[in-house]
C-alpha cells in the first residue's frame, strides 16, 4: 500500500511540475487549459484539475477576461527567496548588455536545468532585424540551440554519452539533431571554444554561444547571440566568438568570487 501511495504521489508531483514549467514558457500572456494539456501530454480534465488545485494554493492565477492560466503570486514569493542563493542574473546582465551593444545582435543568458537550458535574460541590440527563436523563459533540450550545445559540449564525456543515449531530439527538431550530427557539433564546439547553430531550429536564424562555468569547472550557464544569417558570415563569426568567450570567461571568474 505504501508503495502505491508513494508512486501515486510522485506522479502527481511530476505532473504538477510539468504544468508549472509549461506556464513559465507562456508568460506574460498565459495559455489555455487545452494548450497546457497538449504540451504536457495530459488529458484536458487532468490538466484542469491540476491547474485548479495549484490556483487554490496561489501557485497559478487565471485571467478572468480570456481564461488563460499564468504563474501565480506564490511562485513569485518563492522565487524571490530562492534568488538570494541561486540568482546570478544581475551579475550576468552587464555582460548580456555589453554583447548586445558591441555586436548589434540579440544577446542572452541561459541556465542549465537538468537536460534543458532556460533563457533568463534577453537584451536586443541595435540591428533592426531580429530573431525571436529565443526569449526569456524559453526552454530547449541540451544540444539544441547554441547555448545548450555550448553547455553539452563541455560536460564530462560520460555525462554526454548518457544524455545522448536517452535524448530524442529528431522528433521535434529534425534529422540535423540525430546523435551523430550532435556529436560532430560537439567536437567542433570543443575545437573553437564556442558553439554555432547555423539555422537548425528556424531557417535563416543563426546563433552562437559560449559556456559559463562553476567554480568546480562544470558548465552551468551560457551566453549567446542570435540574429539573421547574413550577420553571422564566416568573416564575422571569429570576432563574435572572441567576444562571447571573453565575456564568458570574465563572468565565470566573477561567479567564482561570489
TrEMBL record:
Start and end residues of each HTH iclR-type domain: 10-73
GO process annotations (BP): negative regulation of DNA-templated transcription
A Pfam family it matches: IclR_C
Taxonomy, superkingdom: Bacteria
Assigned keywords, A-Z: DNA-binding, Transcription, Transcription regulation
Residue span(s) of domain IclR-ED: 74-257
MF-aspect GO terms: DNA binding; DNA-binding transcription factor activity
Transmembrane segments: none
Entry protein name: IclR family transcriptional regulator
InterPro entries named among the record's database cross-references: GAF-like_dom_sf, HTH_MetabolicPath_Reg, Tscrpt_reg_IclR_C, Tscrpt_reg_IclR_N, WH-like_DNA-bd_sf, WH_DNA-bd_sf
